[in-house]
Amino acid sequence: SIRPFAVVPFLKELCETFKGYAWGYEQRLVLDCQSVDLQISTDRTLLERVLVNLIKNAFEASTSPTDTVVL
């Protein structure tokens, strides 16, 4: 369901989820967010699915074991 929520805490939570995954690839996932009060209204579950797939693709497509994925 579409509801408003704060983006930064959502992204921080997502980054925490990927710590073990990134470590398995010897890469880093870094959150680079300038706005601390950003709010959006969307389906949080669907957004999370999209971002999870994009992050996994970024790790898997990386050619260097020391690459950093920036979110």
SSE blueprint and pairings:
Blueprint: E1 2-6, H1 7-17, H2 19-24, E2 28-30, E3 39-43, H3 44-61, E4 68-70
Parallel strand pairs: 2-4
Antiparallel strand pairs: 1-3
Structural class: alpha+beta
Shape: elongated
| Percent of residues in β-strands | 15-25%
Distance between the termini: 24 Å
Overview of this protein structure:
Helices cover 49% and strands 23% of the residues. With 71 residues, it is of the alpha+beta class. It is built from three helices and four strands. The protein starts with a strand and ends with a strand.
How would you summarize this macromolecular structure in one to three sentences?
The protein is 49% helix and 23% strand. The chain has 71 residues and is an alpha+beta fold.
Q: Which tags fit this structure?
A:
two-stranded antiparallel ribbon, 71 residues, 49% helix, 4 strands
